[in-house]
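Structure tokens please, single chain.
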Amino acid sequence: MAATENNSIQQIADEATTLQQFYERYLRLVCSSLNGIGAVAWDCSNHQFTPIAQIKGSEDQPIRMGVSEQRHSELLRQSISSADPIVVRPEKTSDGESDYPTILIAKMKRGQSIDLIELFIAGGLAAETNVSRLKELAMLNREAESTRLNSSGAHYPALPQGLGSPAIAAAESASATVRRNLSASQLDQFSHVLHQSLDIRETAGKIANETRRVLDCDRVTVMKVNGTRCKAIAVSGQPTVNRKSNTVSLLEKATRKIIAIKQIFWFPSDDQQPPQISKPLNEYLAISATRSLIAYPIFDSVEKDLTHPDQRDPRRRVERKLIGGIIIEHCKEQWSRDEVSGAIEMVCRHAADAYRNSWQHHNLFAYPIWYWLGKSRVLTAARNLPKTLAVMAGLTLLMLAMIFVPADFRMTCEGTLLPESRRNVFANISGVVTDVLVDHGDLVIKNQPLIRLENIDLAQQIQTAAGKSEELTAIIRAARTELSDRRNQDQSRNENIAALEAQLRSVERESRLLREKEKRLTVVSPIKGSVVTYDVRDILKDRPVERVEALMEVADLSGNWQLELNLPDRKIGHVMQAFKKNDGQPLDVEFILAAKPGETLKGKLIEIGKGTEMLPEQGQHLKLKVAIEDKELDIKQLRSGVNAYIDCGKCSLGYSWFHPVLEFLQKKVLFPLF
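Here you go.
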């Protein structure tokens, strides 16, 4: 800063007699130094933005800002909380130009107070130019802070009148307050309307609309609190609440933090707000036009008289539960707390009583049932009273029957019908199926050939072993002939012949094993029965198979049949207990075939599996075997579906019908709790 400018600011401070006069001259200096088209000085004390002075280049035409009044107020609040000055560039039009100026805002300290200097410069300048001028504005403000006038902390009551800027006019209206006095007739009418209903939503709607009418405010919202959740249930002037709205969701978020302090909340306020309240509140204020906001908490009981000895005893106090809240908003101006607090607290106290009564009524035990019974005159009308009594008597008898009448206790499960004698036919050696000697439904006997396989590697090994055996035999024969022609036999040649003979015996053993292996290429039936695999020729013909791979199934359809049941895991305990009570004797089983559901057959539970199995899409199941007592079955279809009932003894009729519900409650509700 040049010495001449320092002297100019100090000279302005020395000659000014009022704060307004100082800022008018200082703003002229700022505009002339930074080529501004206008400037405004704002007093930010008491959380309000009051204009101190304004200058503009043209007295006939006010400054046109490219932001709304709400956005302008938000920028001023942002400047107070920000450590650095800010630049607001105007939005460009379709042709790339803008008629609105660029706004530079910087803070200036005046004793214990903070003022804002808002400078308007011509739009369309480069961003570097705007940043440079913003830095110069901050430097001028720091020089002005060091002057004797500002450092003395002097405050001047005089404020400018009739300023032409729309933003300054709005700030002037924000400083005005309205005194609201409620007459006895207004309060009586207000209370009369609120207590006309005990429905909580209807009461909340009346609270919102009547409170807005009496206080002449812009919006009233009634919140319902349940634990840590806060839900808007009524908004003044709105038949329903759109909770998906961004405004409503942000208000719910802010209210959840505000009413947690369990005190009446005022905005703006001289008190410093904690971050958990100020952050969601500022997010809501940024999208709303609210200038004043009051949050009144509602509790489940009225506040007790703490002057009573019992209430002063901490051991006898009962903490009140937060059940709701009333949010009052005013957008036109900022209310003076001293002037409107009495009227607002009186209205909210009556509204809280009406909401509390509705909440207590709505939270009565089984309220929906009692409400329906009370509203319905069909059951209590004189002509229908005998029917009502008869129905109640019938329900009573039904309940007694549920408790005292015994009934069969049976466990249901599903399964399949199977012959007792059945075997899968496996391949004993890898190979390619060359011949399928049987077809579906053919009768076979034990060890009857079913399939022939071909293994080229095995055939090659057999041929190699045979050739090697013949070769060794020829060598041994030639050695013996040569040895017999000599008169003197050589001992070494005898040992050589013995070694060749041992090698020949090994090759012959290998050849025999390969021949035995070759026999396994013919797959035989393990039992007597019928081929039950459908279309077995087409499935296996020319198909390569591996060792121990199942090729077909053979079952004795003319023999005895049995059931294989899959008992769900949750029913195993009942069957085990019934089996134990029956001294280990087989339990009775009734079943029906899916192929013939009209006939009930009987059997005996003869075997219970030792472990459960996981069935696809069915969960854990236990395998059971049931011997069929009815020997003459009309339909003997392999793996035919079966629905079975296992007799587990006797129990009460109610437990027989509703034991799944009781077990579900014990498993899903009681067990997690206890």
